[in-house]
Amino acid sequence: MPTRVWPRRLRTAFYWFLAAEFALGAVTKFWPGPTFTGPAYSVKFADWGYPSWFRFVVGAIELVCAVLLVVPGRRPRFLAATTLVLLLTGAVTTHIVNHDELYQSVAAPTHLVIMAAIGLANWPADWRDLLRRSPRIPSTTGGSL
Question: Where are the transmembrane segments (predicted)?
């Protein structure tokens, strides 16, 4: 098997793993009772100062983004990553404002950094051109205007 196939397969497996994480997170938002992560999200969202129905909005966004992460192509993955960056920025802010315990707060900033990297890697334009120096183009007017 060619060696160039493995990076693509690892990247695909990583996208599927992240999609499974966000899909599981979405399911826990829709779950009516306590979850394996603690009390019900309706209680958590109320404790954080959000209406309890807001968990359905967050869960739906996570579920749609989980699907978009596994759709082949850069644009769906970019859309999923940037949407999740916005969502996770709100999650990190919520954890900071509410002084949540570290074990409850570590997942959101970790996934925020991962999604930011995925967003940059799947940028529709070649974002690496921003980092390269462009060669000087010689003037056709001989230096005078």
Answer: 12-32, 52-71, 78-97, 103-123
Give a yes or no: residue 143 inside a domain. Answer: no
Q: Is residue 42 part of a domain?
A: yes
How much is the pLDDT for 102? 87
CA distances from 82 to 22, 47, 57, 77, 94 (A): 14, 27, 17, 8, 19
Cβ neighbours of 106 (radius 10 Å): 12
Mean pLDDT of 114-125: 89
Contact 66/26 with Cβ under 8 angstroms? yes
| Three-state DSSP class for residue 38 | strand
The answer as to whether 139 is a domain residue is: no
Q: Which of 80, 77, 107, 78 is nearest to 95 (CA)?
A: 107
- Which of 83, 102, 107, 94 shows the shortest CA–CA distance to 48? 94
Q: What residue numbers bound the domain in which 62 lies?
A: 5-127
Is residue 78 included in any domain, yes or no?
yes
Q: Give residue-wise pLDDT tens across range 84-105.
A: 999 999 999 999 999 988 888 8
Amino acid symbol at 99: H
Query: 12 φ, ψ to 5°?
Result: -65, -40
Q: How many domains does the chain have?
A: 1
